[in-house]
Amino acid sequence: MRLSGIGKRYGSGPWVLSDVELRLSDGDVLAVVGGNGAGKSTLLRLLVGLTRPTVGEVRERPTAVGYVPDRFPPHDRMSARHYLTHMGRIRGLQTNQAQNRADDLLDRLALVGGPDTALRKLSRGNAQKVALAQALLVAPRLLVLDEPWSGLDVSAHQVLGEIIGEVREDGGTVVFTDHRKAVAAAYATRVYRISGGRLAEEQGGIGELAGVELRRIESGAVDLAGLPGVIDVHERDDVIVVTVADKHCDAVLGAALAGGWSVHAVRRTAVRA
User: Taking the CB of the first residue and of the last residue of the chain, which one, N or C, has fewer CB atoms within 10 A?
Assistant: First the structure.
């Protein structure tokens, strides 16, 4: 897939994107970072075909595209299973195939309340799980995710990372946005930044990583996944394992201790080039 000479503006407003050149190959996992309003979501909508470029061309877009938008407002009375079954049928699945696929995905993502929960009753994080499931009903050759980790619980963070890896291993292409460069560098084969409407590849990585193992000893709340430098949070046995860029490790330890966690272990885990 290729974006050639892409520029985008809305009406007579300023250019959101200018002179974007991008080639995507099978097995690519591309992360796009940038500030609020930089044009990340616009770029993703161009990739999936939900908006057209003002100038330039999008070529060789795959037919099987999965897309998770930055907002998925579930105000409908229908259940998560009913919604996903309906979406699966639109994409060419038989009813029983769509329902079985929906149930498998919602089980894997651990939807709170189960597949019969009405969409309008879902929390933001659980609505995000349904949005992710609908993008995976048919195996995507291009999976596009806008801030996909936003609102997800600890277990779903790990599952999302696994799904990205599976799409890549199957020869698909993944493009996602995240405001945290550390997360982008952890999952992506390439990281790009949008600034001033221009898209440019980031050079270098995040350096050493640390694995922090925590146990809760007091009541309290701290959003471990939202702390600076945190790349992944998942459960293992009776501990929570936080993977964090080494330079942010002390700050994460301090926040965890203040939030009622006990530090079980700290280990160096890997190096990102």
Answer: C
Q: What is the dihedral of CA 33, 34, 35, 40, to 10 degrees?
A: -80
Greater confidence (224 vs 201) lies with 201
- Residue pair 68/127 in contact (Cβ under 8 Å)? The answer is no
Task: Report which of 74, 31, 69 is spatially closest to residue 50, judged by C-alpha positions.
Answer: 69
Residue 214 identity: L
Say how far apart CA 119 and CA 82 lie, in whole Å.
10
Measure Cα distances from 41 to 18, 48, 225, 253, 256 in Å. 14, 11, 22, 33, 32
- DSSP code for 179: S
Query: The whole model's pTM is what?
Result: 0.78
DSSP string, 27-72: T-EEEEE--TTSSHHHHHHHHHTSS--SEEEEE---SSEEEE-S--
Whether 272 has a pLDDT exceeding 80, the answer reads no
Per the listing, tokens 């919604």 go with: 83
